[in-house]
Amino acid sequence: MKLAVIGTGYVGLVSGVCFSDLGNDVTCVDKLSEKIELLQRGEVPIYEPGLKELIEKNTEAGRLRFTTDLTAAVQHADIVILAVGTPSLPNGEANLTYIMGAAREIALSINGPKVIMTKSTVPVGTNEKIENEFRQFSLHPVSIASVPEFLREGSAVRDTMNPDRIIIGTTSDKARQMIEELHRPLTDQILFTDVRSAEMIKYASNAFLATKISFINEIANICEKVGADVTLVAEGMGHDKRIGSSFLKAGIGYGGSCFPKDTQALIQIAGHVDYEFKLLKSVVEVNRDQRFNVIRKLETILDDLSGKTIAIWGLAFKPETDDVRDSPAFEIITSLLQRGAVVKAYDPIATDNFRQNLEHAKVKYCHSAKDAAQNADALCVLTEWKEFRNISPTEIQAWLARPNLIDGRNIYTEEELENTGLVYYSVGRPNMN
Ligand code: NAD
């Protein structure tokens, strides 16, 4: 099948590349010429395990190409995939400027009937707006479908190739049949729905996962006060098939380009129909507060943070990605700076992206974990990169000026900490303090 993918971010690039690997003819389009030039040279603008190899393989096979020429790409395609960003507006609503802009451009470019498949996360009713855009600006018939994306950054290629399910929300038989054919090699778990339900499935899924995270974080906070261990509590809960063990890891809360914006957007979607989503509002509030436990714990140990040097390990919102959008590290570091601390920060992959958003005289970006920890008054682990797990607490203690470790992701075990003189605080494991 011939595909044009509009937007070569985490979703568009990975989907386009994976669809080409299945034998489809794929043109990836982006407005940003620097991004397209990079891809045309065989370089990859994002860090995603396995992606570079697949790009090389499929470009060489002639099934995959990159362009800024949207018109040519959509004219050549049977299916046009919308994968542009839908970031938050200041009030939390999804900003539809990019998706409606792309829809208009496609409408003005098409030269025949097309299937339009929306992968971007969009509020309920948006695909109807997209359809109207085509009615207004094109003479050619289009079949619209909402096919929300569920990949996770850091394992995006694997997730795309092995999806838990594919949701196809459409009223068009043609779109249904073509999109089903496109996804059949990936899974048998295909659920057909109406468009609005498909749009809602994406928000409801992310809101539910965010709820699990805030739930276990609150349990962790209570564990700290009653002397229970949240990792054992989560394990005990997770064996119950009705609950499941995933998304029950206590920590400093969720971040990234999806959960924060999608939870806020769903609160707004509900608000527009006069429904106050009280549960989700609490989930967001709990998450916002959870990251500041790192600061509270530092103040418990060091009292006044002014003039203290704090090492930060991990700037990405989670491991195996260079994405720093809504990473908890921003608020934690900003809060340290407000308290007069000096920060030495290190991340295996995401430092450049982070620095572009936070340049400050009192933040030194370091080239290694050791560099950051050396002579610091405390070390805070904010992202559970494997690299950090492989460094022993004894080594950490030797590097630090004062033996204080705040483990925001519970990466160290009781055994590893035995016989060290570290003052150690993790999340919901008071027995290890
Ligand atoms: P992104 O910001 O990484 O990429 C979007 C790209 O679209 C950018 O490169 C931008 O230049 C390009 N673009 C914008 N307007 C364009 C236009 N008119 N023509 C061509 N290119 C255009 O976004 P992303 O993280 O890939 O997310 C895309 C969508 O998928 C969002 O709605 C997001 O919520 C959703 N989603 C993201 C993830 C994720 O993990 N990142 C997972 C599931 C769903």
UniProtKB/TrEMBL annotation:
Sequence ranges assigned to domain UDP-glucose/GDP-mannose dehydrogenase C-terminal in this UniProt record: 311-414
Reaction(s) catalysed (UniProt annotation): UDP-alpha-D-glucose + 2 NAD(+) + H2O = UDP-alpha-D-glucuronate + 2 NADH + 3 H(+)
Pfam entry (one): UDPG_MGDP_dh_C
Enzyme Commission number(s) of this protein: 1.1.1.22
Keyword annotations of the record: NAD, Oxidoreductase
Tree of life domain: Bacteria
Keyword Disulfide bond: no
Pathway linked to the protein: Nucleotide-sugar biosynthesis; UDP-alpha-D-glucuronate biosynthesis; UDP-alpha-D-glucuronate from UDP-alpha-D-glucose: step 1/1
Transmembrane portions of the chain: none
Cited SMART domains: UDPG_MGDP_dh_C
SUPFAM superfamilies: 6-phosphogluconate dehydrogenase C-terminal domain-like (SSF48179), NAD(P)-binding Rossmann-fold domains (SSF51735), UDP-glucose/GDP-mannose dehydrogenase C-terminal domain (SSF52413)
UniProt entry tagged with the keyword Cytoplasm: no
Family membership noted in the UniProt record: Belongs to the UDP-glucose/GDP-mannose dehydrogenase family.
Cross-referenced NCBIfam families: NDP-sugDHase (TIGR03026)
Protein name according to UniProt: UDP-glucose 6-dehydrogenase
Organism this protein belongs to: Paenibacillus sepulcri
